[in-house]
Amino acid sequence: MTLRLHNYFRSSTSTRLRAALNLKGIPFEYVGVHLVKGEHRTARYTGLNPQGLVPALELEDGTFLTQSLAIMEWLDEAYPARPLLPEDPIARARVRALAHMIALEIHPVNNLRVMNFHAQAAGGGDAAKKAWFAHWVHTTFEPLERMLATSPETGIHCHGDTPGYADCCLYAQMWNNRRFEVDMTPYPTITRIFEALDALPAFAEAAPARQPDAR
């Protein structure tokens, strides 16, 4: 039995983990969990993953791993070939910081359940969701652009010329940005890195539209 990835095609956390698995050349079985249809709230799924979130990685012995960043670091520990994180401690700290800016600053407030709750509480519709989403992207992308544009450690990708941990997070976030029509004009470095990543099969095959449950 191969690893089984329980995920949703449009989920950015799922996209980043698909990219990580592809980068490391680890085969997995795609198991779709449709968030809009509420499949993550079923007794079957919450019995496996009490948080009812995606993604979750099911190991060959039936163990369930949750939280995409934790799973990505587990992948490096369990499958050390093609590492997602650099070896040098300072470089690892830089890469984690870049990834966390996206995964821990933008994603939590722009998560589907958070946006839906905010829109309902505030009495707003799709326009309110887009404004909320864009605000939090710009709040973090402005300093992220400066950090990437001015650091000698930035290469073709977020850190040097080998894609990894931070690139998985950036790539996934950019697809969400496109969905919510975020203006990327102020962020040429981020855009350049995304385009370089999208040219790589490991990332392109992880894109939302390429997944079997995309519709």
Write the layout of secondary structure elements.
Blueprint: E1 3-7, H1 12-23, E2 28-32, H2 43-48, E3 56-58, E4 64-66, H3 68-78, H4 89-110, H5 112-122, H6 126-150, H7 165-179, H8 188-198, H9 201-204
Parallel strand pairs: 1-2
Antiparallel strand pairs: 1-3, 3-4
Helix pairs in contact: 1-3, 1-7, 4-6, 4-7, 5-6, 7-8
Can you put this structure into words, describing what you see?
- By secondary structure, the chain is an alpha+beta fold.
- It folds into 2 domains: 3-83 and 204-210, Glutaredoxin, CATH 3.40.30.10; 89-200, Glutathione S-transferase Yfyf (Class Pi), Chain A, domain 2 (Up-down Bundle).
- The protein is 54% helix and 7% strand.
- The protein has helices at 12-23, 43-48, 68-78, 89-110, 112-122, 126-150, 165-179, 188-198, 201-204; strands spanning 3-7, 28-32, 56-58, 64-66.
- A hairpin with a 5-residue loop joins β3 and β4 (64-66).
- The longest helix is centred in the middle third of the chain and has 25 residues, at 126-150.
- The chain is globular and about 50 Å long.
